[in-house]
Amino acid sequence: MDAGRLNMPQLLGGARRWFDEGLLAALEAARIAPVSTVQLHIFTVLDEDGTTVSELARRMGVTRQTAHQAVHGLVATGLLEQVPDPDSARRKLIRRTAEGRRTHERATALVDELERTLAGRIGAENVEALRAVLEQPWGPPTPD
Fold first, then answer.
1. Domains of the chain: residue spans and CATH
2. What is the mean pLDDT of residues 13-19?
């Protein structure tokens, strides 16, 4: 591999950071509750009906403690709430509050704006091609 060439995980990570940084800046400019990158990620993996902290941690690839801390911060800002799981008396579900749903809808609109910005910079056809490739099933990450 060329020493100056970034590998695919580095490129994908950089693309993710571009969107995260753009979204965080747009949320701040709109004076929407300040959140961290980890807290942003929670909103992308949270089920509409609620998700356990353990499942959030698994989906995000972080420790349960990290997920719990991020959730706790979002509960404190009023964007998330913890409710009993109707399927298990021992578990709690994390879900969006009404304010959390409004914030999520606004963030989704801001991501759409960022995607349009990207299309203006690298071309709409390139953004559509990138989306088409990323939407394809990749199969397991083991060599054939």
1. 9-135 (1.10.10.10)
2. 95
